[in-house]
């Protein structure tokens, strides 16, 4: 059994701050940051979705809860402003040589090639001042939660939160076209909306079960990411990694750039078997739902 197995029972609830600033206060905070007072949490400008995440190396994101429409767990107002580094950067060439050691001559040719003279001009900050930024790029923020939930649920109209940050027209509305695309059931495209709504009611039990298991998976994944990051599971290098290709069997994988560093973190079934098992269970539940959906479609067609 993995030494990390007990973590399966440690559900981490990510709570939003209580209270919150009004929009005028946000403007004041922005002014202070521009004047050089760093406010809020340094965060990544991650590209949402896919395996790659980008980072703006000199940015601060201020997150202020927005309660203008009532209390919601994931409401955020984000403002990004320029932020001058408070720590002196490393000598880039020395950082590369120190990191790669005797392999540096080979690595220089292998991963940089003709781009080296241009890339060596890049600013590389000390890792101690960059690690929190990279960790923020791996943890599931609201946008990543929404996208991951949709990929696992695959049922239009079922969202991670009632307040949607990233609207997807092909997913947000439950209709014949969207349901056919999400479930791979072409016969649904000719069904009237009233029938689609009835199918949704008929399959509400399995979708509720899926919702519960997906949320458990996402909570455990977020915790596993933090554990892996802090226990030596992170691959990192100044400017570029030697390889950032995903591993077979990875439950999660992402590459992050920021402050002159590239890092990659993966969550594998070998180290986190309970996450791999839960991921398989979610897939099996979707398969069972599709079988039931096809049965409903067949019955509807025979009655028409």
What does this structure look like?
By secondary structure, this protein is of the alpha+beta class. The chain has a domain at about 125-304. The protein has helices at about 25-35, 90-100, 105-110, 115-120, 130-140, 140-155, 170, 175-185, 195-200, 205-230, 275-304; strands spanning about 50-55, 60-65, 75-80, 235-240, 250-260, 260-270. The strands form 2 sheets. A 4-stranded mixed β-sheet has the order 1-5-6-4. Strands 2-3 form a two-stranded antiparallel sheet. Strand 5 (about 250-260) and strand 6 (about 260-270) form a beta hairpin. Helix 6 (about 140-155) crosses helix 10 and helix 10 packs antiparallel against helix 11 (about 275-304). The longest helix has about 30 residues, at about 275-304.
